[in-house]
Amino acid sequence: MSDGHLQGKKIFIDGDRGIGDMLVLTPAFRTLKEICPSCELTVGAYELPALQALERLPYIDHVRKMEDRGLGSKIRTAWQLHSYDYVVLTGYRPVLARFLHYFGVKHLSGTGKEKQLRKGWFEVMTPQSDGKIARNVVRASCGDVFRSLHLDSEAIRDYACDCSLPTAEEEKSLHDKILRAGGLTELTEYVVIAPEGFTALNIPYRLLEPLVAYLQERLDCPLVFMGKDTRALTAKLKEAVPEAKLIDLSGQTNVMEMFALLKNAAYAITVDSGPMHIACALGTKTVAYFTTSPPVMWAPDKCCYPVSADVDCSPCKKGGPQYCSDRKCENLIDWAVFKKSVEEALR
């Protein structure tokens, strides 16, 4: 089908919860507006950081904060969305889908089960995500969105992801925080290290200590740590590598300052997580530590230098790393393997 059926139409697409899950959909949003410039595109985000990651992108007309607590919120959301011409649910939301169907959304697409398709809930049904299958999430997710809108996914030529840009004021605020936290009078270059992940394994200390020593010797610039709380980690690293210029900003930045931190870094070292997607989308060379999922699934198309043991059990096939006795995905990555990716990024 051509794209004429979408011109001038109101389209709503909901995303998932994390920043990374939202950013991987941006190639589909961007291409949709390129080929259907007169459509009105609204994107739903369930968490504030994900909303802020999208709200300044020029090809998204509106970003909507989604409610997801209790039956009442789902009924209200379905009623508010029933006036859209096309509604695409990228996650498995059977209760919301049921009410959207009852309220008469004609072009409703989403993730569901065969019985829901037979009941007529979905015009197009996309498969449920299987984290055990190592497929490229960006291409798969964007392809599902295009199929849901009766578009050819081959129209998506560029799968690089986008992210909201911080303002000059937000960048200055972040710059001042780094100066204060590091006791500095000037700042010309710095490296961001985000060693923690929510679903991926953290970068272990046995790799962080040689990493800090190597970056200090090679770049001689401040190393800024970010995350939930890395104060104990940075204190330990300061004792082990006293010459390193370590600055801990964990818990001290808002979302847009975090974007500014990653945007203006010379390099970023992260796990397979939201900061990786943000840094790469903002054009920062990023060394990404992959464990529970392989790079083929989540590594961004640009600026990413993956570190991986390339084991056949990644993505996790045992229910998660907590059920794994050997953790080959982690233990087979030594400093020599990690250093190789760091050197490639620093060239």
Description:
The strands form two sheets. The protein has a six-stranded parallel β-sheet, with helices on both faces. A six-stranded parallel β-sheet has the order 9-8-7-10-11-12, with helices on both faces. It starts with 9 loop residues before the first strand and ends with a helix. The longest helix has 15 residues, at 168-182. It has 15 helices and twelve strands. The protein has 347 residues and is of the alpha/beta class. Helix 6 links the parallel strand 5 (107-111) and strand 6 (124-126).
Cα Rg: 22 Å
DSSP strand (E) fraction?
Answer: 15-25%
The profile of the biggest β sheet is: 6 strands, parallel
Distance between the termini: 46 Å
Average pLDDT, to the nearest integer? 92
Given the helix and strand composition, which structural class is it?
Answer: alpha/beta
Taking pLDDT < 50 over at least 5 consecutive residues as the criterion, the unreliable ranges are: none
Note the overall shape.
Answer: globular
The count of helical stretches stands at 15
**Biggest sheet, strands in spatial order?**
3-2-1-4-5-6
Return the string of H and E elements. EHHEHEHEHEHEHHEHEHEHEHEHEHH
Number of strands: 12
